[in-house]
Amino acid sequence: WLYLRRQKERQLRARRLGHLRALALGQGDFQLRDTGGTPRSKSAFLGRWVLLYFGFTHCPDVCPEELEKLGRAVELLEREPGLPPVQPLFVTVDPERDDAAALARYLRDFHPRLVGLTGTPEQVRAAAAAFRVYVSAGPRDADGDYVVDHSVITFLVDPDGLLRDFYGRSRTAEEVARSVKGHMETYEPLPP
């Protein structure tokens, strides 16, 4: 019975990964800069598990909540003996206001290893498009301020650079950590 159950779980996991690969989410590379001005690409994170979130520093509530949850999930995973480290990443969807200094100030309140990435509007659009993240800047108010509407999804990228899973707003940090751990435990690297 246990063998059949594990076999069914493997088949379901393989089918889900097949669907994700067919969507071609996150399979392109991106060229952005971190808060220190260092150029970073998706390929620079190969060999590591990555939890990636797209948002912006002027977000009133959703982005801070999601970054808190992402940080908590990473902390839970760090407590698990034998698991590889997870790299948390934040990519801005508002490069006009989110330069390296703004990202550094904003992200220091979250997980200490959270890396913030920004770039030109074209580079940021390309990165968001690779993950099919919806982004739309709202109208400016009298002070010139605006809100950016965007997809609220955290992506899990495996050490091969492939999307393994994604987590919406309704998932808790514990659920995200449990899912990531499951992916790590069943991960098989792509053949060279």
From TrEMBL:
The gene is Sco2. It is found in: Mitochondrion inner membrane. It is a single-pass membrane protein. Gene3D superfamilies: Glutaredoxin. This is SCO2 protein. Residues 21-185 form the Thioredoxin domain. Belongs to the SCO1/2 family. Keywords: Copper, Disulfide bond, Metal-binding. Disulfide bonds join C59-C63. It comes from the Eukaryota. The keyword Cell cycle does not apply. One of its GO terms (cellular component) is mitochondrial inner membrane. Cu cation binds at C59, C63, H150. Its main location: mitochondrion. GO terms for molecular function: metal ion binding. It comes from Atrichornis clamosus.
